[in-house]
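Protocol check, entry for the methods section draft. Step 1: assemble the input record (protein sequence plus ligand SMILES). Step 2: submit for complex structure prediction. Step 3: store the structure tokens unaltered in the notebook. Ligand used here: S-adenosylmethionine. Step 1 record:
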Amino acid sequence: MDANSKQILSNQDGVHPNLEKTALRHLNSVFRKPVSKHTQAAFDVVSEAMTSSARPLILDSCCGVGDSSRVLARAYPSHWIVGVDKSGARLGREREEANPENLRLVRADLNDFFRLAANAGWRPERHYILYPNPWPKAEHLKRRWHGAPVFPDIIWLGGRLELRSNWRLYLEEFALALKLAGHTARVQAFDAKEPITPFEAKYKKSGQPLWQLTAVLS
Ligand SMILES: C[S@@+](CC[C@H](N)C(=O)[O-])C[C@H]1O[C@@H](n2cnc3c(N)ncnc32)[C@H](O)[C@@H]1O
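Step 3, stored output:
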């Protein structure tokens, strides 16, 4: 990956003026859009696989090529690690390391997968969303996870939630949306000593500051 990745450019100079209204609307309503067949099928397959042994769960959402999922699978050998991404091309990218036995990589749309998981009672111990697409244009607020109708399901899943981004404002907005739901989050500078995802490695090489949000959603 190239080491001259561009800084985020946004036409927002602070928190989106509609953030509160948008997040509250979603927090106070039910997202009823039908679930896509391919995500339902993928969810059923991974749920079935996890019934083979009862283990705590770690969710790695927007896992891209799955490198962070493999790191987590090695760090937590007694857990299930489920990495989810909508891109089959990314998930299928060849890697030297074989997938550990406690890892499942799933191609699915998280707008549906989060709802299925929350409704099925999944309660990951840890939930990572590393370098989500920032959608920095103001008109794209609803594409950010905290501006999306599925945001309440991310909260409902619970656990220790961690997001990382090279755009601090994304995480500040996410923290504000969590606050509206009664949760406290911490946003701080993040020093990626050993990058665990391609985007983390690329931003670090480019000298961009990185940010981390953590929250315990019990
Ligand atoms: C900027 S990349 C980061 C990937 C990886 N976490 C990393 O740091 O290298 C964002 C990822 O989110 C995935 N993504 C975006 N929207 C998604 C959705 N609705 N469902 C599943 N994956 C999604 C994209 O396919 C992409 O791989």
